[in-house]
Amino acid sequence: MSWKVKRFDELTTTELYAILKERTQVFVVEQECPYLEVDGKDVHSYHLYKEENGEVAAYARLLPRGVSYREASIGRVFVKKEYRGRGLAGELMNKSLNFIHGELGESEVKIQAQEYLREFYGSFGFRAITETYLDDGIPHIDMVLEK
User: In the CATH hierarchy, which top-level class contains the domain 3-107?
Assistant: First the structure.
């Protein structure tokens, strides 16, 4: 299947349910991190995802500037376990950045990344702007990309 990007109000209830189900599976269950996954930012965001075999295989939430940070942001990035190792994460980030730069016209992007992904995000031009810190018990780092 192809990639889709939709505003919150364009998502069908079935699409929204599938997205939230997979986000909860990855960020709450798989990472053993109990937190409020539905945080109120979805309604202000764009949702980029790829469906395969009737399920959400990869996803990123694209936040316009002013929703999480002064800059535009990318969050809730995941590739479902069964689809990892196929290059979907790189494809997802390229599509995310193309949308933010091209469609939203933003030059700066800020992310809160899990520390172990520092090099992955660095390969897209992100640079660390904080030291490593714990968020929900997981080491994170804030990074920015300036085009």
Answer: alpha beta
Q: For the chain, which residues make up each domain, given as ranges?
A: 3-107
pTM to 2 decimal places: 0.94
pLDDT for residue 21: 95
| Alpha helix positions (H), 5-109 | 13-24, 88-98
Question: What is the model's pLDDT at position 3?
Answer: 96
Dist. CA 114–CA 51, nearest whole Å: 24
Burial of 51 (0-12, 13-18, 19+ CB in 10 A): middle
Q: For residues 36 and 103, what is the distance between their CA atoms, to the nearest angstrom? A: 29
Banded model confidence at residue 1, pLDDT cuts 50, 70, 90: low
User: What is the spatial distance between Cα 74 and Cα 54, in angstroms, rounded to a whole number?
Assistant: 24
